[in-house]
Specification:
Blueprint (H helix, E strand, L loop, with lengths): L2 H21 L4 H9 L3 H6 L1 H19 L7 H17 L4 H14 L3 H29 L5 H23 L4 H9 L5 H19 L4 H29 L5 H14 L11 H10 L6 H29 L2 H4 L2
Length: 320
């Protein structure tokens, strides 16, 4: 069996196990009643913070891409939307790869360069998530042990990664010289050197104090907007979720998605919802209703915008 098929099989098995754990013993009648009482006008209002969150993430990615050359914001936005659509339907964050390839083809950018900025974007954003978790989790009244442990265990690794990103441009010459001495053949050295060089170009955007502050600010605004979205959805369902609790919940979802991701984080998100929201006083059915409505909104939004993005970026005209 090929590695790709093993990956797909692993994603299916992981989703099935987590779904079983999350839904085991659930009150299906209560779950249906909670979803059934959702207010349509409030759900419609939830589209605004969802769109704002996506726009902030596109702006953050553009900050990295502009380290080498100017790029149109609209192209980055539509590529970002397509990437989120890919993540919704494909395992292991494959949408991040697809958005990089699509934007590179559209703008004539080197694939390794765009992929390098995507890697920097994800790595640096992970640091912001861990920082949010480290602050929010101790302030929460009740959180599962796995959440506190995950935030603490990831803190060291993320700190090293962020320091590496910040300092990478300063050690470019030394790194390239060391790479040239590796006994792996000229072709591999050339490819790795190109990829590393583009990664360093992307990291330059957050190497300066101003660039780092802009990136962190956009990331914080993005995650805080996601928390506001959770509060709005809770209002639509008649659930009592405060903003502080929503911040903890969003941080938990982000940390849990660091594991090999299932398509759309199916199973992962349901497990997190039950383990994080029930200590806040919600029932199992209410926690599941909250995350199911959240995922349904995101699926509808990123699918619509992702398909529009394919059209706006000229993908359909290239495959005719």
């Amino acid at each position: 069996m090929s590695p790709t098929r093993w990956l797909r099989l692993g994603a299916v098995v992981l989703a099935a196990i987590l779904l079983y754990v999350a839904f085991r013993g659930a009150d299906w009648a209560e779950l249906g009643a909670v979803i059934g009482r959702a207010r349509g006008d409030v759900l419609a209002a939830a589209v605004a913070p969802a769109l704002l969150s996506l726009s902030l993430r596109a702006t953050r990615w553009r900050l990295l891409l502009r380290a080498d050359r100017g790029v149109p914001w609209s192209s980055v936005f539509w590529a970002t939307a397509f990437g989120y659509m890919g993540n919704a339907y494909l395992p292991a964050r494959a949408g991040d790869l697809l958005r990089s390839l699509l934007l590179g083809q559209r703008l004539g950018l080197a694939k390794s360069y765009v992929l390098g900025t995507t890697a920097v974007d994800r790595a640096a954003d992970a640091g912001v998530v861990v920082a949010i978790a480290l602050v929010a989790v101790p302030l929460a009244t009740a959180v599962p042990d796995w959440l506190a442990g995950a935030a603490a265990s990831l803190a060291g690794a993320v700190a090293v990664a962020l320091l590496t990103l910040h300092q990478a441009p300063r050690f470019e010459r030394w790194t390239m010289a060391a790479l040239a001495r590796l006994p792996i053949g000229d072709r591999w050295i050339q490819w790795l050197g190109s990829a590393l060089g583009h990664f360093i170009v992307g990291s330059r955007a957050i190497g300066s104090p101003g660039g780092a502050a802009a990136f962190v600010g956009l990331s914080l605004l993005g995650w805080m907007t996601d928390a506001a979205l959770m509060v709005v959805l809770a209002m639509a369902l008649g659930l009592d979720i405060g903003y502080g609790q929503a911040v903890v919940f969003i941080a938990a979802l982000a940390l849990a998605s660091a594991v090999p991701a299932t398509p759309g984080y199916i199973g992962i998100y349901q497990f997190v919802a039950v383990t994080v929201l029930t200590p806040f006083g919600l029932s199992q059915a209410e926690a599941l209703a909250q995350i199911l409505v959240f995922q349904a909104l995101l699926y509808g939004l990123v699918t619509s915008l992702g398909l529009i993005g394919l059209w706006r970026l000229g993908w359909f005209s290239r495959v005719r």
